[in-house]
Amino acid sequence: MYLDLRQLSISALALSFVAALPLEERGQGLFGGSSSCVAQKSFSLPTRGHSSYDTHSFHYNLGGDCNHDRLKVKQHDPHGRICDPSSPWDIHRDLPTVCPIGHYFFWFFSDTFAYKSDGSFVGAASNSVVVSRNANDPSSVQEISIENDGTVSVAIPWTDAEKKVQYEDDRYALWAFGPCIPIDGTHSSQVWSVVKFTNSSYSETIGYTIADYSIEDGSLVVSRREVMTFSSTSYAYGAFASLLVNGVVYMYALDTKHSGKYDVHLASAPRATLYDQSTWSYYDGSTDSWTSTPPDSSQRNQDKAVLTGAMPFSTGSMFYSDYHNAYVLVYFTNWADSKFYAITASSPSGPWDTTATLLFETEYGENGYNYGGQAAPVIESGVTLGQKIVVSYTYQDSNSNWYGKTETVEFE
Length: 412
Ligand SMILES: *[C@@H]1O[C@H](CO)[C@@H](O)[C@H](O)[C@H]1NC(C)=O
Known about the structure:
The protein has two helices and 26 strands. The chain is mostly beta strands. The strands form five sheets. Strands 1, 8, 9, 10, 11, 12 and 13 form a seven-stranded antiparallel β-sheet that branches. Strands 14, 15, 16, 17, 18 and 19 form a six-stranded antiparallel β-sheet that branches. Strands 3, 4, 5, 6 and 7 form a five-stranded antiparallel β-sheet that branches. The longest helix has 13 residues, at 5-17. It is globular. Mean pLDDT is 87; it is low at 1-35. The structure holds 2-acetamido-2-deoxy-beta-D-glucopyranose. 2-acetamido-2-deoxy-beta-D-glucopyranose is lined by residues 198-199, 201-202.
C-alpha cells in the first residue's frame, strides 16, 4: 500500500473546512504595525510551564560510536487524546507539530474545529496552538488559541491581504507538517505552508512562511517577518526537521515533489543571522561540502541530498541524543503503517545510517492509520538526554474526526 498522506489528509480537510469558515476570525488578532514583521499576535500563557523542560541544556559530546542497541524501546505509555480538561469544547484538529521552547512544550495544529458536546458547531481555524503543563502527561494541555467563551482564532496571524479573503472561496490556509526550529530558551521558529484555495475544492501550496515564536512577559508572541520566505519551487528548508548545534541552525527539507519523499536536503545558517538568507549554506552530498548556491530543486537531485531514506519519509523530528551518542531522526514513513522508526547520524550532515530501527507501532483508529508523527526529547534531571522522548501523531476515528495523541517513550 502506498498512500500519499499529505494529499490524503488535505483533500479530506478541504471538503469539511468550507462550511466552517465564516467564524474563522472571531478572535482578536493583534496585527502589529511593527516594521520588523508583517503580522503578529500574542497569547497569554499559564503562569509557568513544567520546570523540567530546559531546551538550553543540550551538550554535543559526540565521539565514538552510536549506541545503536539503545534504540530498543523499553516502554511506551500512551497518554490519549491531546486535550484541555478545562475546555468545554470537543475539538477536532489535524497534525500536531511539536515545539519545545524553554520550560514550555507547545503543539501547533493545522485545521481545527470546535464543537459543543451535542455536536453543534462552535468555530474553526486554519491552525491552533496548545501548551503542555506536565511532562509526565503531555496530552493534558491548556488551550491558548481557543477560549472557553467560544472564541476560536488562528495561532499564526494572517497578513491583512490573507485575512481579507478568509470569507471567500478564494482563501488562504497555513499548515505546518514539521516541528519547530530550535533557537534558544525563549525563541523558536516554524515553517508553515502557505496554501491558496482557488475555489472550495481546489488548493495548492504557493510557498512557505516562517512564524517566529517568542516567550515574552508570560505570553507567546507569534510573528511573521515575511509574507513568504520561500516560493513553492524551492526546497522548504526547516519544514521537515531541524537541529541547533553549537550556534548553527540546520534546516532539513524533504523533496516531496521529485524524489517520492526519499531525499532530504540541508541548509545551515548561524543562529545569529538566521533571517538573512545570504548567510545560508547548502550541503552538497556529491562533494560532502557546503556551498552558497542552493541545489536545483526543479528536478530530483539525489546526489546533492544529505540523506536518502530506505523508505519514503512523511513526517518526523530530529534531535541530539546523549543517550544514543547520535543525532536521531524519529519518523513515520509514507507507508501509512502507524509505526515510529528511527535512523541515526554522527553529525548533522551525516553520514546517516539509513537502516531503519522500528521503535513501535501506534494503535490506530477506524481509518486504518495514524499520520504526522513527531518526537521531542524530555529534558528531566536524572534522565540522560534522549533516553526519554515524547511522540505525537494524528489519530483518526472516522473520515471527519482527527485529533492529536501523545505517548512517552523510554529507551532500554
Ligand atoms: C476549481 O479550480 C480548479 C483549478 O483552477 C479547476 O480545475 C476546477 O475546475 C475548479 N472547480 C470548481 C468546482 O470550480
